[in-house]
């Protein structure tokens, strides 16, 4: 499943993300996100965007409960924590898991 992302430019971002930049890299659809400053960044046409999903995409049939010690990478993302699992990020939402 591919989730649409919003184009929200991160102004004043002087750090260049890439291999060995020191931030957690997360494959996300057709690009790579980097966890930085409490949100996720992606390179886009010579600048950096904040990778924000558009809409609500429930991950159906997700019976694994994420949390401390669950074995998946936890990534702070705005006001919640995403967990990297099955090639995408999952976030708890009203009793189920969303795809981010």
Explain the overall architecture.
The protein has 100 residues and is an all-beta fold. Helix content is 0%, strand content 48%. It is built from no helices and 9 strands. The chain has strands at 5-9, 25-28, 31-36, 39-44, 47-53, 74-77, 80-85, 88-93, 96-99. The strands form 2 sheets. It has a 5-stranded antiparallel sheet, with no helix packed on it. The chain is globular.
Question: Gist?
Answer:
By secondary structure, the protein is mainly β. 0% of the residues lie in helices and 48% in strands. The strands form 2 sheets. It has a 5-stranded antiparallel β-sheet with strand order 1-5-4-3-2, with no helix packed on it.
Count of runs of 4 or more consecutive helical residues = 0
The amount of beta strand, in percent, is over 45%
Largest sheet composition: 5 strands, antiparallel
What's the pLDDT, averaged over the residues? 75
Number of strands: 9
N/C terminus separation: 10 Å
* Biggest sheet: strand arrangement: 1-5-4-3-2
Question: How are helices and strands ordered from N to C?
Answer: EEEEEEEEE
Unreliable residue runs: none
Shape: globular
Helix vs. strand class: mainly beta
Q: What is the percent of helical residues? A: under 10%
Cα-atom radius of gyration: 13 Å
